[in-house]
Each structure stands twice: as structure tokens, then as C-alpha cells.
Write a sequence for this structure.
């Protein structure tokens, strides 16, 4: 009877090990695909941006990675459709960032004992 349980336990262990290996392979494949997509994106950006514009975008990526990613995607889309003069300079990046800031920035006001404090 103990022999049957040992065999069942071994089968369960084998199945779990196979499942784990499959998950690891899928995760590795997903990471490789993401790395490939990122490399393609960076190559396109290298072709359409001036060095100064790339530097500004990289600095933004450090502080606000979500905004930088959004700007990169927009720049690539605009360049691929021909609606953006190439090479894109730092001034264009600044204008895009100003537009994003003006659309997303909210003026916060707090009233404390009759005074208004603005942020």
C-alpha cells in the first residue's frame, strides 16, 4: 500500500516539475520577446531623434517612465505615418511634453483658515 502512495507521489512531483518548467520557459520566451520589441523601438528612435532629443527622452524616462514610454510610442507612430519631420529635435520633444503636462496637470488648491495655498 505504501508503494502505491509512493508512486502517486512521484507522479504528482513529476507533473508539478513539468508545469514549473513550462512556466519558466514561457516566462523566458516572454522576456525575450519584450527585449526584442524594446531593441526595435530603440533602433527606430535612434534613427528619428537627434542625440539631444534622445538624451532628453532618456532623462525623462528616469523620472517618469510612463510618460517617456507614451512619448516614444507617439513619436514612432507619427514618424511612421510621415507626420513628423525627421530628425526630431529636442524642441519638438519639449513641445510634446508641454502639451502632455498641460493636459494632465491639475491645479490643487487647499483652503486653510481663509487662506488659499496653491501647489
Amino acid at each position: 500500500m505504501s508503494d502505491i502512495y509512493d508512486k502517486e507521489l512521484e507522479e504528482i512531483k513529476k507533473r508539478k516539475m513539468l508545469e514549473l518548467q513550462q512556466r519558466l520557459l514561457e516566462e523566458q520566451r516572454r522576456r525575450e520577446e519584450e527585449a526584442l520589441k524594446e531593441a526595435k523601438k530603440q533602433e527606430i528612435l535612434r534613427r528619428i531623434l537627434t542625440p539631444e532629443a534622445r538624451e532628453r527622452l532618456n532623462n525623462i524616462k528616469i523620472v517618469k517612465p510612463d510618460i517617456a514610454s507614451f512619448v516614444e510610442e507617439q513619436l514612432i507612430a507619427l514618424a511612421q505615418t510621415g507626420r513628423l519631420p525627421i530628425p526630431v529635435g529636442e524642441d519638438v520633444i519639449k513641445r510634446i511634453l508641454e502639451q502632455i503636462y498641460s493636459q494632465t496637470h491639475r491645479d490643487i488648491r487647499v483652503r486653510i483658515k481663509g487662506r488659499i495655498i496653491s501647489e
